[in-house]
Structure formats: C-alpha cells, structure tokens
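Section 5: illustrative case.
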C-alpha cells in the first residue's frame, strides 16, 4: 500500500490492464496528448501509442459507437466521456445498443465495454456539468453501474470492469480526483462486483452510501461514536449489481437506515434501495427508512447556492441524530 491520488489509481489500473491485455485501449476527448481532462490518462499515449490511446472528435455518440463496435469485434475499449452529463448525448448507443446486444443475439455477441465518466457537484460547474446520472444508467437492464469511493476502490473496481464481458458505466466523482488514498500496488488487485463494503461498524443505525458520500458518512460516524452513537457505514460500491443482503443484515442489527446518495432524491437510487429491502426488514425497523440526496433542482453555478443543495457532513449528522 502507498498513498496516491484517486486519478493516479485510475491511471494505474488502465496502465496495468493495457499491459496485461493487448485488446484493451482507451478512447475519448483529450485522453491522449493532454492526458485527459482530469489527468487520468497521463503517459498512456507515450507508452502505448496512438492506436491504443486515441484522441477522438467531440462526439459522444460517435465515441461510444466506436466502443460498441470495437467490443463486438473482440476488443476491450475504455471510453472516457469528459462529463457524466454528456451520457445523454449517447443514450441510443448506450441503452439501445450496448445494453441490449447480448440479449438480442441470444448470447452470441458480447460487449465488454467500459464507459468512464466524472459526475457530481462541488466544482461550481453549473447545471450542465454537475449532474449525477447513475440512477438513469441503473434503470437500463444490461448495464453494470459502479461508483468507487476511494483510490483503492477505483483501482480494484476499474480492473474488474475492464475484465468484465458486459458493458459497465464507471462513475468517478470529480471532487475525488486529487484526494489521496492508500492504494495497493498489486497489478492483479481486483474488487468483485455486487459486494458492498462495511467501512465502519455500528449497532444504532445503518448508513448506506455511494461514492464521495461514503467518505462524508464515515467522517460523521467517527465523530458520533465519541457521543455513543455507533453508526454502521456501508459503501455500496456497485449500484448494479446491488448487494441487498449486506444492507438487509445490517438493518436487522441496527433497526434504522439512512441512505445517502448525491443523486436527486426523487425517483433515485435511495428510493429504490428503500423499497427493495422493505419486505425483508419491515419488522426489524425502529424508525422509518430515510433518504438524503441532492435537492430536486438544477445545480446553480454560484457556490453559495450550490453547496447547500448537496448532502454534506452537517446534513448527514443531523439526519442520523434525528433518526436515532
């Protein structure tokens, strides 16, 4: 283990998988010469050449379409979209093609495609560059959806995604890129999909969180433990597949559940988790299941208006105390 930035962990995973498998290549806007908008592909062009680290035109539909076609011919493309908001430009390629080809071919074709993209607010990038569309992707059968919370999670989950024979949407929170985390040096380090991680044990309340919200919830849990309120924090890791069993067993122990996700509260991940586990935990609950997410409005450009809309340590702490 050594401490590196989140973006360096992603770069390391890409580098190791490209070295391990010649069918792996990276394509996207500015991934080559510039090394990626958030510097996740620095050095790959020099090491692997233009055919395996390809700068693309500004056409998300075209980039993803190339990725789908390449995957169908035996390659393992890793497509980078500069912002998660731009997934909307390529929804036909993602949801009508990549997600359905294996099903529509009766399993005769496979699409081992990874789409990496940053998401979330916090950089004052305004309403068209700050959105969290992981719930949209999770709604489409045939896609796997990943939300790594740390550098170690990013490396292990990305390597698993690249080796997977199905299309994977890999969401990287843009506020994590320059944060440092202890990350394994092992070039065969992988994390299985569909297995959540309990990052803090407790018996008073369960907090199930995604991406950067895991770090905020963990900080709150450590502070509240000093006051005798012991929260169990679960890093969901993957939205699809979702590890319902770990959440259910935790809630049976604690009797309370707070779901924290940066997506908008309405029709989102938190609501789906709540209803999907309800029949298994209903008689164990000591309080109603509560969700905490971003307010149902477009994110403003102004930091003074943006930050209060996104869950933070204060709002998580208040929610836990209220529930307990």
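Designed sequence:
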């Amino acid at each position: 283990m050594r401490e590196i930035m989140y973006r360096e962990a992603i770069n390391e995973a890409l580098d190791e998988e490209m070295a391990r498998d010649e069918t792996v290549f990276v394509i996207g806007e500015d991934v080559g010469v510039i090394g990626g908008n958030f510097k996740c592909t620095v050095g790959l062009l020099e090491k692997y050449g233009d055919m395996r680290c390809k700068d693309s035109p500004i056409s998300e539909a075209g980039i993803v379409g190339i990725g789908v076609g390449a995957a169908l011919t035996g390659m393992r493309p890793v497509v980078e979209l500069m912002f998660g908001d731009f997934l909307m430009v390529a929804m036909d390629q993602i949801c009508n093609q990549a997600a359905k080809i294996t099903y529509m071919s009766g399993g005769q074709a496979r699409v081992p495609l990874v789409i990496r993209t940053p998401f979330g607010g916090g950089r004052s990038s305004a309403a068209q560059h700050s959105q969290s569309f992981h719930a949209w992707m999770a709604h489409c059968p045939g896609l796997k959806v990943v939300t790594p919370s740390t550098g170690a999670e990013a490396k292990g989950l990305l390597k698993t995604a690249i080796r997977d024979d199905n299309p994977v949407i890999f969401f990287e929170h843009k506020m994590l890129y320059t944060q440092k985390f202890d990350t394994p040096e092992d070039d065969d380090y992988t994390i299985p999909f569909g297995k959540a991680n309990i990052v803090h044990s407790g018996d008073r309340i369960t907090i199930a969180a995604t991406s950067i919200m895991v770090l905020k919830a963990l900080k709150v849990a450590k502070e509240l433990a000093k006051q005798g309120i012991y929260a169990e924090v679960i890093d969901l890791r993957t939205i699809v597949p979702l590890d319902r069993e770990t959440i259910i067993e935790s809630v049976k122990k604690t009797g309370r559940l707070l779901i924290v996700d940066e997506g908008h509260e309405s029709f989102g991940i938190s609501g789906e988790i709540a209803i999907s586990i309800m029949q298994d935990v209903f008689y164990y609950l000591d309080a109603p299941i509560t969700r905490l997410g971003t307010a149902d409005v477009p994110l403003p450009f102004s930091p003074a208006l943006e930050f209060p809309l996104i869950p933070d340590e204060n709002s998580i702490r208040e929610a836990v105390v209220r529930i307990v």
